[in-house]
Amino acid sequence: MKIKKLHDLYFKEVISKEEINSIVKTLAYQVKQDLPENEVPLFIGILNGCFVFASDFVREFNRDSEITFVKLASYEGTSSTDTVKKLIGINEDISGRTVIILEDIIDTGTTLQEIYEIFRTKNIKELKIVSLFFKPDVYRKELHINYIGKSIEDKFIVGYGLDYNGLGRNLPAIYQLTTQPKMKNIVLFGPPGAGKGTQATLLKEKYNLVHISTGDVFRFNIKNQTELGVLAKKYIDAGDLVPDEVTINMLKQEVDKNAEANGFIFDGFPRTEDQAKALDEFLAEKNERINGMVALEVPEDLLVERILDRGKTSGRSDDTDEDKIRNRFNEYNTKTAILKDYYEAQGNFYGIDGVGTIEEITSRLATVFDKL
Ligand code: AMP
User: Fold this and answer.
1) Is the domain of 245 the same as that of 325?
2) Does 52 share its domain with 109?
3) Are 54 and 67 in contact (CB under 8 A)?
4) What is the spatial distance between Cα 26 and Cα 30, in angstroms, rounded to a whole number?
5) What is the best residue among 236, 237, 321, 325 to mutate for testing ligand 1's pocket, by most ligand atoms within 8 Å of CB?
6) Are residues 43 and 117 in the same domain?
7) Which one of 102, 133, 277, 296 counts the least CB within 10 Å of its CB?
8) Distance from the CA of 268 to the center of ligand 1, in angstroms?
9) Domain limit, last residue, from 134, 154, 178
10) Which CATH number fits the domain that encloses residue 252?
11) Are 242 and 107 found together in one domain?
12) pLDDT of residue 84
């Protein structure tokens, strides 16, 4: 689950593209079942919002059919108004045809009613309505809607063809208007030894954020011989990752302990794509999001030296054995480094040169933190 910003507003994912796909399939199947096999229906898509739905629907319908579009805009901003503005209609002769109206969403039903009235006068054989989404709480018309994909609550949604002032139509899932995030949440990223811990300690003060290092939490638990510590120890000592389920639950607890925080610096988490997805979902449930992943980029050979050096004083058993250090890099390169792509795809990745003095690097990081 993700949070998207469109213009000045924030939206969170509420219906996944997989769910939409299955709704569209079911609708197409139902419509097909109810039509005689040799009937070639004329689908009428109501623009603009339905263009994505109509396109998927006719392909799922997968039988001879025609499609055309009418445009009757009734939306301004986020609230439905009763002023229907303009119809760009169809001019072809549709008398005697089975006409099936395709709507992306029906709320008050005003637009639909007007379109329905227009088609009713055209001497057609049968007129049916298919709507992908339907808001039962605000529907004010008597008109029967023959096929409804999914009934939803009366919240403003975007995605899958639906827009907010022009944006959001391209989103593959449905997103719902949500409150503005209050936190600044940053994933501090980079290979072992890149200096994440040192920098996080400095930056948390500067930005009044809570620093969560999953490595530190594990070490604390190992030291105190908790159940979690005993479980995690064997993975950590070998330089392997602790299983996702354990790590994700632990992270959630750490976040929930600090519910009033201005935000978090996540250090050492996420380390796998499943962790990144879990974090996105967890934050979206709180109407929060990751503002950015900031990555410290340092060449590997320099890092092995740094870690061995750190091992002389850190007391960390995984910092002293070069084989185990190499294995941590292997885990990083095979499981963690791909997260760069994950955040890049969200437009949220910021790479920073991690070679230099501590002060130099803090100031490079701060330049990015300031704008997130
Ligand atoms: P770190 O202090 O971040 O280098 O973490 C030390 C060790 O803790 C890692 O080598 C892993 O064994 C374990 N660990 C820390 N964070 C995670 C995570 N997000 N997922 C799985 N294992 C982790």
Assistant:
1) yes
2) yes
3) yes
4) 6
5) 236
6) yes
7) 277
8) 6
9) 178
10) 3.40.50.300
11) no
12) 46
Q: Are residues 140 and 119 in the same domain?
A: yes
pLDDT, tens digit, 9 for 90 and up, residues 157-184: 999 999 999 999 999 999 999 998 999 9
Q: Of 12-21, 140-149, 238-247, 312-321, which gets the smallest average pLDDT? A: 312-321
Q: What CATH number does residue 74 fall under?
A: 3.40.50.2020
User: Which tokens go with 82?
Assistant: 């009763």
On whether both 193 and 297 belong to a single domain, the answer is yes
pTM above 0.85, yes or no: no
Q: Are residues 238 and 342 in the same domain?
A: yes
Q: Which two tokens stand for residue 299?
A: 């060449």
Going from the Cα of 105 to the center of ligand 1, the distance in angstroms, rounded, reads: 46
| Structure confidence by residue, pLDDT tens digits, 203-215 | 999 999 999 999 9
Count of helices and strands (H, E) across the chain = 12, 17
Residue finishing a domain among 127, 152, 178: 178
Q: Which of 199, 213, 240, 241 to mutate to test the pocket of ligand 1 (most atoms within 8 A of CB)?
A: 241
Specify the residue for token string 């379109």: 115
Catalytic center residues: 196, 271, 310, 316, 328
Indicate the number of domains in the chain.
2
Percentage of residues in the chain with pLDDT exceeding 90? 75
Contact, 265 vs 186, CB < 8 A?
yes
Cβ(346)–Cβ(271) below 8 Å: no
291 C-alpha to ligand 1 centroid (Å)? 22
Domain containing residue 237: 184-371
Of residues 202 and 111, more confidently modeled: 202
The rounded Å distance from CA 247 to ligand 1 centre is 9
Quote the tokens at residue 205: 């003060």
* 143 in the same domain as 211: no
Pocket-forming residues, ligand 1, beta carbon under 6 Å: 192, 214-215, 218, 235-236, 239-242, 247, 268-269, 271, 275, 318, 328
